Amino acid sequence: MEKILNGTEGFVDKQPLKNFWYVVALGDDIDSSPISVKLLNEDLVIWRGFDGSLIAAAEKCPHRQAPLSHGHLENGCLVCPYHGWTFGESGKCINIPSSSDGVPIPSKAHLNTVEVIEKYGLVWLCLGEPINPLFELKEESDSSFRRINTEVQKWKVAATRMVDNFLDITHFPYVHAGTFGAGQETKVPNISLEYLDNDFFGYRYDILAANPEEAKSTSGSNEESVERSMSSGFNLPLTVRSTITYKSGLEHVILLLSTPIDEISSYFTFVIWRNDDFTIPADEVIAFDRAIGEEDRVMLEKLNGVMPLGKTALVNVQSDKATVEWRRQLLKLINS
Ligand code: FES
Ligand SMILES: [Fe+2]
To answer: Residue 265 Cα, ligand 2 centroid: separation in angstroms?
Structure first.
């Protein structure tokens, strides 16, 4: 097991990864036109059917392989731009315009669809058979919290490097010196790992974070620095959740989503839930988190290639405990 993925061996082609859910778009991104996405090296088209539900299928038309996302919708059915074959519910081909009336549609003309769900404002795909339902976040159904979504970006970095970063707090004083990490203590306490709840495994910690002008609407405090009780945890394969609780009782939950497009590029988005008084505009509340994400992107895009997953391939110290454990579990999963 150690040998696998110590170097450059393919990660995204690993079969077990196909049985999990990945975010590829915001629900709001899919309206009156089909969109194209790429997940684990597979090109896919997604569109919204007549009843508003989503349909996701292989991007290539079964006829002459035209990209279906270049087509258009008619009453919720997808029309191929090349010869007008039309696909409805469940990807079923319902019309071949060149065929005479009464000629049956070949069974191979139907599209191969993949599992799709819409949750937390996001579109999630599973290329195989989902082995688990998507995790439940209690804040979603708690009326004292609001949810804020932001756009799905493309980062030129392996998704594994993103997760590794999102579980790591020791880069804060360096990478995030321009936001909340300025002057932050570089030493971190010993990390002990625990189940944070049923779905996320990780650790809890407290930090004194810089609270510059741009952070004040997010932290709800006017002080120069703020104490944050935090947790960071993962849900396999590639989801990370950070929680921040301020002394005021304000809670700020961040779900960090990394989706492998291919070996070295990924989609990234995050979702915030917070129990504030809902008065500060959403854009303002997430501006600081966006700036933090941008600092991570700039750093991570400097790291080339895939991240080795083997235990001995990278040098680890005590503060890397969470990412070492996540990599151990991920390696076990992809070799299962
Ligand atoms: S390639 Fe799509 S209808 Fe011909
Ligand atoms: Fe970071």
So the answer is: 18
Cα dihedral 74, 80, 84, 90, rounded to 10, equals: -60
Q: Which ligand has the minimum distance to the alpha carbon of residue 174?
A: 2
220 in any annotated domain: yes
Q: Is residue 147 part of a domain?
A: yes
122, 150: one domain: no
Based on its alpha-carbon atoms, the radius of gyration of the chain, rounded to whole angstroms, reads 22
CA of 163 to the centre of ligand 2 (A): 10
On the CB side of 180, CA atoms within 13 Å amount to: 27
Confidence (pTM): 0.94
Digit-coded pLDDT (tens) for 23-63: 999 999 999 999 999 999 999 999 999 999 999 999 999 99
Range(s) of the domain holding residue 118: 16-126
User: Nearest bound ligand to CA 180?
Assistant: 2
pLDDT tens, residue by residue, 94-105: 999 999 988 999
Evaluate: CB of 83 within 6 angstroms of ligand 1: yes
